[in-house]
Structure formats: C-alpha cells, structure tokens
Amino acid sequence: MTASIIDGKIIAAELRGRVAAEVARVKSEHGVTPGLAVVLVGSDPASEVYVRSKHKQTQEAGMASFEHKLPADVAQADLIALVQKLNTDPTVHGILVQLPLPKGLDTDAVVNAIDPAKDVDGLHPTNAGRLASGMPALSPCTPLGCIILTKSVHKSLEGMNAIVIGRSNLVGRPLVQLLLNENATVTIAHSKSRDLAKLCAQADLVYAAVGRPEMVRGDWIKPGATVIDVGINRLPGAEGKTRLVGDVAYQEALKTAGAITPVPGGVGQMTVACLLVNTLRAACAIHKLAAPA
Ligand code: NDP
C-alpha cells in the first residue's frame, strides 16, 4: 500500500480562491477592504522571505497589505508604540509581528500589546485562552491549516485517536484544542514522553511538530493512518545546496500511512492561506458582518 499524498499546494490555492471571493463580496456589499499589517524587525533572511510571500498573497486576495520594517536595534518602546498605532488604525484588521524577534526584544510584551481582535497569528493570551475554553477565537494559522488538510481526507474527526507530537504555543497546543473542538481523542507528546513509537501506533491521526528531521519513523505509524508533517528542517543537500525535510521519515511513512503531507508542499502552503482567512474573519468581526463560511 502506498499512502495518498495530501497536496497542500492545491488545497491552499482553493482556500485562497474562496477568501478572494469573500473579500470581493465584503468590499462590494459593505465597502470594507480587509487590511493586514505585517511588522518585520531586523533582516533575518527566512523572515524576509515569509513577509514577502504574505504581502504578495494578501494583495492577490484583494486585501490591503501594509509592511512596516524596523531596524534590529529598535527600542522595545518604539516597537510597542507602532503596534498600538496599528491597533487604532481603522484600515488595519490584522496585525502580525514576524517572529522570532531579534535578541533584546521581549516577544511576550509585544504580542500582548496587539489588540486581540486584530491578533491574526492567534498568539495573544486572550485568544489562546478563548480557544482553550472552547470559545470563538482567532487561532494560530499553522494548526488551522493542519485541520483543513486532515478534513480533506476525513469529513469528520469525531472519535478518532490523534497524537500531537510537540506542545509549542505556536503549533502543538493550539492544534490540540482545535482537535478537541472536532471531537477527536487527543494524546499530547513532547520531549519527556515515553515510548513515542507505541503512542503513535495507536493513532489514526499523527501530527509531527517537533523540529527534528525525520524523527517519526515509518514503523511507528498505524497502517492507514493520516500523517500531517508540520516540521520544516533544512539539511545539507547536493552541490552545497540545502534540502527541506519534515519531522517524519517520508519515504518510510509512505509505505504504512493511508495519507500523508509532503515537505515541502504540505502544511507550509496552508499557513499563509490561513492568515488570509484570519484577516478576513477579523475584518468581518470588527465591522460586525456575518462571519465568512
Ligand atoms: P518548538 O521548538 O517551539 O517546539 C518543539 C516541540 O517538540 C516541543 O514541545 C518539544 O518538547 C517537542 N520535542 C522536542 N524534541 C522532542 C522529542 N525528541 N520527542 C518528542 N517531542 C520533542 O517548535 P515549533 O512548534 O515552533 O515548530 C515545530 C516544527 O514545525 C519546526 O520544524 C518548525 O520549523 C515547523 N513549523 C512549520 C510551520 C509551517 O508553516 N509548516 C510553522 C511553524 C513551525 P518540550 O516542550 O518538552 O520541549
């Protein structure tokens, strides 16, 4: 048996198309143009690539895109002052401060300064708390993408056994909450968990969000399980280039899984698409319009 490939590229493109259609409707019916402000501090090359991609996709969806670049040595107070200005800017519905921030800046203080109604990264404690309480919330984009990819295979996740490996605030924890909202039965694993292979073997749904190249082996996976690989790890490749691998040993897992996301071309594709979804949702909530489907 060879697993079917969950094509994040196609699923993300469909999602962006749906967002663009909703943006056009909100603009024509209500005169509201959803706007996303991205704040980039310093010049980390990977962050610059992400910010460019967010800018391009935001514009392609018909939204307003505002970029704010600050030097790596910006004062904490100046960064927070910019966030506060964006909080009160009526053309901005979503605020994203690109992480990680350069050393010396207090990430928690910056995230906490964002108006929770505009917190499209879903990292503000108000949104994290609302999500954990089962209340409507802006949820982090990568876990949202994971759920959409899973639902491209399984219409309902009710009663399924899921394992989430990794418990970061960005991926693992919110993913657990979203899976609970879908009525899955969830095991949360982390660096102190014992016998991961045995825990994985019981799971119908495996989510790997660890940051360790190919840690999850093919023989850990229950035959037919759905595997969502969040990991993005850069390894040395041929001719001095680098290659990307996930947290799952893909070639091995292909032989046991029922469906699997590739790296690249899986979860990574969904993250920015879900950022657009969150920005549209935030704009609708701020203007008291019906939430998009
Ligand atoms: P973090 O480093 O914040 O968290 C890693 C988690 O993995 C921690 O909870 C840690 O446990 C756990 N862990 C580490 N080692 C082991 C181990 N040996 N066994 C079991 N669990 C372990 O990473 P992130 O959550 O931010 O990211 C995870 C991966 O996802 C990375 O590869 C990252 O690049 C990728 N990523 C991809 C995105 C995308 O768009 N596709 C977006 C965001 C991240 P403990 O808590 O005990 O330390």
Q: What labels describe this entry?
A:
single chain; 293 residues; alpha/beta; Rossmann fold; six-stranded parallel beta sheet; three-stranded parallel beta sheet; binds NADPH dihydro-nicotinamide-adenine-dinucleotide phosphate
Describe what is shown at a glance:
The chain is of the alpha/beta class and 293 residues long. It has helices spanning 8-30, 45-60, 76-88, 107-113, 125-132, 141-151, 172-181, 196-201, 250-256, 267-286; strands at 4-5, 35-41, 64-70, 94-97, 161-165, 185-189, 205-208, 226-229, 233-236, 242-245, 259-260.
Would you kindly provide a written description of the structure presented here, covering whatever features stand out?
There is one protein chain. This protein is α/β, with parallel strands linked by helices and 293 residues long. It folds into two domains: 33-115, 3-Layer(aba) Sandwich (Rossmann fold); 141-268, 3-Layer(aba) Sandwich (Rossmann fold). It is built from ten helices and eleven strands. The strands form three sheets. The chain has a six-stranded parallel beta sheet, sandwiched between helices. α7 (172-181) links the parallel β5 (161-165) and β6. α1 packs parallel to α10 (267-286), α2 packs across α10 and α6 (141-151) crosses α7 (172-181). The longest helix is centred in the first third of the chain and has 23 residues, at 8-30. It is globular and about 55 Å long. The two termini are 36 Å apart. It binds NADPH dihydro-nicotinamide-adenine-dinucleotide phosphate. NADPH dihydro-nicotinamide-adenine-dinucleotide phosphate binds next to α10.
